[in-house]
Amino acid sequence: MNSASTVRDSAPAHATDAPVTRRPFRVLRIGDAVSVRIRVRSAVVCAALLTAVVAVGLYTLATGDYSIPVPDVVRALLGGGDQATHFVVDSLRAPRLVTGVLVGAALGASGAVFQSITRNPLGSPDVIGFGTGSACGAVAVIVLAHGDAPEVSAGALAGGLVTAAAVYLLALRRGAMQGFRLILVGIGVTGMLTAFDQWMLTRASINDAVTAQIWLTGSLNGRGWAQAVPLAIAVAVLLPCTALLSRQADLLEMGDDAARALGLRVERGRLALVVLAVALVAVATAAAGPVTFVALAAPQIARRMTKSPGVGVGPAAAMGALVVPVSDLAAQRLFPSELPVGVATGAVGGVYLAFLLARQWRDGR
Amino acid sequence: MTVVILSRGAGGSTKGAALIAGTTKVRLTSLPVSQSTASEIRPVPPTETPAGPARRRSTAAKALGLVACLGALAVVLLLSLAIGAKSIPPHSAFDALFHFNGSDDELVVRQQRLPRTGLGLEVGVALGLAGALMQALTRNPLADPGILGVNSGASAAVAVAIGFLGLNGTLSYIWFAFAGAALVSVVVYVLGSAGRTAATPVRLALAGTAVTAALTAFTSAVLLLEPDTFDQFRYWNVGSVVGRDASVIWQVMPFVAVGAALALGLSRSLNALALGEDSGRALGARPGRTRALGALAVTLLCGAATAAVGPIGFIGLVVPHLARFLTGPDQRWVLPYSAVLAPVLLVGSDVLGRVVARPGEVEVGIVTAFLGAPVFIALARSGRISQL
């Protein structure tokens, strides 16, 4: 479904309406060894998004039940300031913010990869059910083992990876994988895991059940550096790798045969991308629970902003990094009692989804 | 649409078609999804045309099969009365129905097991017919109240009823479940059918899943704002025939009855519709009217079932496939078979749920998910998705 638009929107359309002097690409060369082709508009959008992330971050750190002027926030971040300010900024607000930004970046990047692989704007990891796998692992730890936070994260990680492996293997047929089959198998597995989740919820005490339900929604509440630091390390490793491989994702979007003809080892490339994307979702989910719709919406919004033919990993990650902290802020401040961030992303995502489908409807695609 | 790559085999001869067929390797490579299976629905090839005696014989066989299915249903119903935390011999269960003498065993049967069995029967019929009807109307083998998001609509509405309006007890939120199911089935179909192109299986499944995800977030918000609501809701949401008020059976009965009558009455029109819009119209079918009535029947059946027992997935998906496997594509047989086989599966799952976790029970909605999801995955793997 995506392929039609990909082909139609691609280079010629831009070439005609852009002046010859403003080429859409610049080449960055460092010596003879490094040569990177950069799309100007994407780079500008990324920069703008990251600036917005910083602005939102400062606002988040400065406001709340205890207001702190921005200069004091900066001083506290650099290690200065009085003790109370330092405590509020460094121990309470900053880790939560950092976790939110990283979770958003990881989900956005992974959503971009999955949408390329499945060649479907709706083929995001939460629809495919990798989030459900993580959630199932986490709920099992909460309800059956009464585990503490690190154990719950470990359970989520394990659940996500096992589910992803199972879905991928089930979607393989004669050694080949098709995007739509991955989606459908994922939907089936999700149905089963959701039933298992619900069964565990009815067996749990009400306290465990509420904890599990919050977890199932996706929450950044009470996240400290203990969660933020491992997440930061994982994202710092996985995100650059994904960005490096994203060229292969662009080729895969053209279809297996075209990609093969252009010299890509299709199955191997796809497997590498799936592994990276799943790892990104798994670490994000382990940190914050299955925050819905970020992986679905961020790549598509970014694609519309950059006006690029495909879903790019970089802009999608930047968009995710903006969406999650903003949603968290909204969920904290707009309701009488504080709600988990997944509720806000779910609401935003629902509206966005209606827009996406209605657009397809209008285009008759 | 497949690409056929011909390469010469060891013989290398190209003399004559037969020889080529014998010595060449034919490799089939599927084209990308957007051009092949996912986005197109081919009309069903007209398979049932054997004339005269052959056809009559097959009709007799199908009728016999239906009787056999009814027999299976009777056995399962009796098992449902006999098996449980307290095992009761089938003959006592039988006596409890027809020669009631007030013993403990017979009280258990009458007061505990009879209502849940009756409810399972009713809901099974509704879900089986709804699934078969959904699959025929959308010509989508993956249609099912769970996958198309109807259940999540009912769940969200019930969460609102319990949370914001303070209702409790199945009897009071049944109407909300109804309204939610109806609203969401319309939304998903509109989103999934996407204007000029037909509603493709994958697109409908995606629209349903996406709407489910959005509604789940909403439901979750309601539940987390009100922990008491959550405590009530989690037992409804799991999908169970236990602990529902026995009068629920009578309350939803009219809806199931009207929905079932509509569904069975539409079977001929559905056959015409299966040939495609144009051919169907040429044969005198009225696609618009058939779709509208069908959608009404689906809403009545799904809404009633979900309202009565909570969301139960996969029954509506699996049973019509089983029915088509037994009868072929003729809706005049698929619908009755589905109506009989679905309660067999549902009540059977309920019995299984009582046996696997003794002395506790596993709710029927969970058993059906664990039985049905593998079938769904097998269907997705089989590549027969578009052939309906």
From TrEMBL, chain B:
Keywords: Cell membrane, Membrane, Transmembrane, Transmembrane helix, Transport
Subcellular location: Cell membrane
Pfam families for the chain: FecCD (PF01032)
Predominant location category: membrane
Topology of this chain in the membrane: Multi-pass membrane protein
Transmembrane parts of this sequence: 63-85, 117-134, 146-167, 173-192, 204-225, 248-271, 292-314, 334-352, 364-383
Record-stated family: Belongs to the binding-protein-dependent transport system permease family. FecCD subfamily.
PANTHER family (UniProt xref): FE(3+) DICITRATE TRANSPORT SYSTEM PERMEASE PROTEIN FECC-RELATED, FERRIC ENTEROBACTIN TRANSPORT SYSTEM PERMEASE PROTEIN
Name under which the protein is recorded: Iron chelate uptake ABC transporter family permease subunit
Organism: Streptantibioticus parmotrematis
Lineage of the species this protein comes from: Bacteria, Bacillati, Actinomycetota, Actinomycetes, Kitasatosporales
